[in-house]
Write a structure and sequence with these properties.
Elements: E1 2-7, H1 17-22, H2 30-38, E2 42-44, E3 47-48, E4 60-65, E5 79-83, E6 87-92, H3 109-115, E7 137-143, H4 146-157, E8 162-170, E9 177-181, E10 185-186, E11 194-195, E12 205-213, E13 217-224, H5 231-238, E14 262-270, E15 277-281, H6 286-297
Parallel strand pairs: 7-14
Antiparallel strand pairs: 1-4, 2-3, 2-4, 5-6, 6-7, 8-13, 8-14, 9-12, 10-11, 12-13, 14-15
């Protein structure tokens, strides 16, 4: 991992840290700058800062630059549910990492998307505008050009792409619907986890409706307003409704599950080029449908 060091120019004094970083040729985009900051790879005068931190002239900024993985087109088992010249909607199975990171440098969804004509965005995640955890299944929209990537990214930023998930949780919600608003960041004590107990909070909002109430569990229809890492899992655990099967924040092994019961079952948005409404749905994969039947039989 190389380290980039530079001092804040007089003309950049008072600017946000993420904007200053994005102007660096070695980083290249505001999204890349934000990822580096959130991961704790950026220090200002020796201290980790939030992306909104306003820099001062002469301050030294240090950036740890992870080695960019070599992403080449590779066949990956993923179903395409909608396709045109501008975009794809794919149905990702559990167990596939969306883009190269850490030990996962091969066999990711990003490799498979290149073979499907994905383009736009960062070199190691062409076409990707939002993501799912490795062991979360379901729908993702993907760009097929730089223009499409920018337009879809704008829709994400404007919260005009509705992303809905089915989550089976342990416990009984206190209401038929709810809104969870709690900032999320890296946990203060364990940086492998996300948490509402963090030194670098980022706004996070999750909505839910009770889809089906069972004796010890509930099936929730969850909607993301923001899209923070592990957001649904962290938020539901915070209100004492941990996700069944979740080995990190929930109930590991519940109902025989080997991964969290979380499935991105619906995407809806206006097509970024035609303006026509796009609505795509995905049924529960077999292992989740089986677990739900077990939960119903325990009622």
């Amino acid at each position: 991992m190389a380290t980039l060091r530079f001092r804040v120019a007089d003309g950049d004094a008072g600017r946000r840290l993420d904007r200053v970083l994005a102007a660096c040729g070695e980083i290249g985009s505001r999204a890349s700058a934000e990822r580096l900051i959130v991961a704790g790879h950026v220090r200002v005068a020796g201290l980790v800062r939030q992306k909104s931190h306003l820099v001062s002239a002469g301050e030294e900024i240090e950036v740890d630059l992870p080695k960019a993985p070599d992403v080449t087109a590779t066949s990956v088992d993923v179903a395409v549910t909608l396709e045109d010249e501008h975009l794809l909607v794919v149905d990702k199975p559990a167990g596939i990492v969306v883009h190269p990171a850490g030990p996962h440098e091969a066999g990711t969804l990003a490799h498979g998307l290149l073979a499907l004509g994905a383009e736009g965005g960062d070199e190691d995640r062409q076409g990707i505008v939002h993501r799912l955890d490795r062991d979360t299944s379901g729908l993702l929209v993907v760009a097929r050009s730089a223009d499409a990537h920018e337009r879809l990214s704008q829709l994400i930023r404007a919260r005009e792409i509705e992303r809905r998930y089915l989550a089976l949780v342990r416990g009984r919600p206190r209401s038929k619907s709810g809104r969870i608003e709690a900032p999320i960041g890296r946990d203060r004590r364990d940086r492998s986890r996300m948490s509402i107990d963090t030194e670098m909070p980022r706004d996070a909002v999750t909505w839910f409706d009770v889809h089906e109430l069972l004796s010890e569990r509930a099936l929730l229809d969850v909607r993301l307003e923001t899209g923070r890492t592990h957001q649904i899992r962290v938020h539901l655990a915070a209100i004492e409704l941990p996700v069944c099967g979740d080995p990190v924040y929930g109930i590991a092994g519940d109902l025989g599950l080997e991964r969290q019961f979380l499935h991105a079952h619906r995407l809806s948005f206006r097509h970024p080029f035609t303006g026509e409404p796009v609505e795509v749905e995905s049924p529960l994969p077999p292992e989740l449908a089986e677990a739900l039947e077990q939960a119903r039989s325990a009622t």
